[in-house]
Automatic annotation (TrEMBL), chain A:
<dbReference type="InterPro" id="IPR011195">
    <property type="entry name" value="UCP010256"/>
</dbReference>
<protein>
    <submittedName>
        <fullName>VWA domain-containing protein</fullName>
    </submittedName>
</protein>
<feature type="region of interest" description="Disordered">
    <location>
        <begin position="75"/>
        <end position="123"/>
    </location>
</feature>
<feature type="compositionally biased region" description="Gly residues">
    <location>
        <begin position="100"/>
        <end position="119"/>
    </location>
</feature>
<dbReference type="Pfam" id="PF05762">
    <property type="entry name" value="VWA_CoxE"/>
</dbReference>
<feature type="compositionally biased region" description="Basic and acidic residues">
    <location>
        <begin position="80"/>
        <end position="97"/>
    </location>
</feature>
<dbReference type="InterPro" id="IPR008912">
    <property type="entry name" value="Uncharacterised_CoxE"/>
</dbReference>
UniProtKB/TrEMBL annotation, chain B:
<dbReference type="InterPro" id="IPR050764">
    <property type="entry name" value="CbbQ/NirQ/NorQ/GpvN"/>
</dbReference>
<dbReference type="Pfam" id="PF07728">
    <property type="entry name" value="AAA_5"/>
</dbReference>
<dbReference type="InterPro" id="IPR003593">
    <property type="entry name" value="AAA+_ATPase"/>
</dbReference>
<dbReference type="InterPro" id="IPR011704">
    <property type="entry name" value="ATPase_dyneun-rel_AAA"/>
</dbReference>
<protein>
    <submittedName>
        <fullName>MoxR family ATPase</fullName>
    </submittedName>
</protein>
<feature type="domain" description="AAA+ ATPase">
    <location>
        <begin position="36"/>
        <end position="214"/>
    </location>
</feature>
Amino acid sequence: MDETLLQFIRHLRNNGLAISTAETLDAMRVVATLGYSDPGLLRDGLASCLAKTVDDHSHFAVCFERFFRAPIGENITDNNTKDEAENTDLDDTKNPNEGDGAGGGEGAGNGQGSGGSGSIGQRDNTLSEVIRAAAEVGLENIKFRTQRGVYRRKILNALNDEQKVSNIQQLQDAGEIEQALILRQLRDRQIAAVKDVIDRQLLLNNDAAGKQLRDDTIKDTSLSAMEHYHRERLPPLIRKLAKKLASRHRQRHKRARRGKLDLGKTLRRNIAYGGIPFHRFWKTTRKDKSDIFVLCDISGSVSAWSRVLLLFVQALSDVLPNTRSFVFCGQSIEVSDLFKQYPADEAMAIIQQRHGLGGSDYGLALNSFWNQIEDKLNRRSCVIILGDGRGNGGDTGIDALRNIYHRARLVLWFNPESHYSWNTGDSEIRRYQSASHYVAECGSLRKLERLLDQLLSLLQ
Amino acid sequence: MTDARKDIEQLIAKLAEQGYIASSAIATTLYIAQQLERPILIEGPPGVGKTELANATAAMLAKPLFRLQCYEGLDESKALYDWKYSKQLLYVQVLKEQLHDILDGTDGLANAVERLHNFDDIFYSERFLEPRPLLKALQSDDGAVLLIDEIDKADYEFESLLLEILADFSVTLPEIGTLRARHKPLVILTSNNTRDLSDALKRRCLHLYIPFPEAKLESRIVHSRVPAVPDELRRQLVNFVHGVRELDLKKQPAISETIDWARSLLLLHCDSLSRELVEDTLNVLLKYEEDINMVSPELHGLIKRATSNL
């Protein structure tokens, strides 16, 4: 088994590239064909079977650089030292190339000239000892930053550190100060090396487990309670969830275009051939496409949620082709074009900046929304409204909503508020409930995902 | 230099003979695809030579190229195989008379059916099979290059249909059984990335992303395609195109447009870029009114940068 390659693949996975077993096997064959000697070639070859999207390619390049090139410790110029120590079985394939320096034009200090590998100093010996010890205690399983201390202790134990300490003590007691000083320096160097190795491994593992934990937490946290710091992680997470939803629903998206045999037409058209059906005609199935209208409150109280819903809907554009997005504080404004022109994140910022000030006026919003979509609304339309239904005591616009309700196939109201605070204070959600098919609480990302999942199944 | 590197250099040279200037990444992927017998999925902006790579490869290997252009609604009867329905029907009509002879002398329905069973499903044999590009590529006698162009335009069902072919180079026809490729064809898929392809498809392919080339490479490409363009003009026009690509355009000029532009400039007999010339021929390079409007005010700077000796 090629341990270096497996470690590299683990490193890629920790950095978010999804690599299957089949691709690992492919990569092994690639390495067997190309060998390790030519880094440029190896990079291009591995990239073709391990990185499967454009984004992946740039990630891959960074990871490759970090894994195969990054020097460890400040004074070590030979990049292969780590791999060398880790994989003694690979030494034969690696060492000859140091003098060769093939493909070294990539800029990294590759190779030390002729006979470079012969001059491994004491410092490198320390390092390789440490790396060997690290492999013994299973350092590659380190997951969280907080485990650093534990692993440091484990590695030092494996290196017989206690023995060294007592040796130094003994020498000191015996009065051989100089000898003790040398030993102490060696030990300090070793400890520094241990620290380096652990940090590097953490970097390679990229805190993958920690990220997974954070993602899971974010999905269940109410957005209003979420720290600003976590909100920045939302857009990628939303895209990931949307991708999952899209792939689940895309399979059923299209039905067979060719329906049953149109017997009458077939017979009629084949009269010329004495009724023998040389040409066949099929009934075509016509599938209704749903139009989706999304209306989001972007006033202070629920703007964060509107952002999430709009991003989600945009990310789902693959399976929801006819979507029009509207936002309101007062007047409802269509923003579909902005999403076409700019990337989703940027579009959201522009919307927030242009339209996002003030408290919500549901009366004005729903009336203007109705005026804009009246002629487009039919039995295939589905309307999603996101808001907390708190109109600050003003006009509720319930009549406009009722018009929409009668015209559309489905009116959904997503309320980010918890169920318990509905109908308290200035909340008019009970009245809106009477004019929509379903009012749902979407307190967390996971709930929203479930709602959209159900909606998609319904629309198919 | 290792063996693999030597082979790849050779591959680049051979592709160059066909007029295709390949970067090292392209050649490496092609080499691996040949060694591992894997399909290649090529992505990249339109006009960087994705389809051209398949053409050049087929010419280089001296093998026939089967091209399948994908579009929405493409199904297996157009891509894979179909039954020659009319021929089947015609044979049935002609052979109607024969039935009497065959069934002559049988008594009772059971015996007649029994005798008919002795004849195979002749109407669903390979004789009545109408092969479409995919099947043709599998059936070719000494290998072929199969180009599945713009796979992202096809439906998701079609991707699933491709999986068996891409993984095992075989097709299962319900009436006949599994047909295996006589020689595994080299399969090249291209995608303009208008939608995400399924992971299952990607897993079976090598992935190659072809970006817009660097100036040096593009200059060589132009040289190979339009050799008559003087060196100085070539350098200037490639630099100019690279400058244009840095702007935020609706559609970036691709290599094919650079080549077209080089040809037009050649027709106009000019040896260096000038403002009037560029203004008049900008529509060769840019395909949208908005893009032309965006580039026009920048022309002075762009031309100055392109013609300076940096």
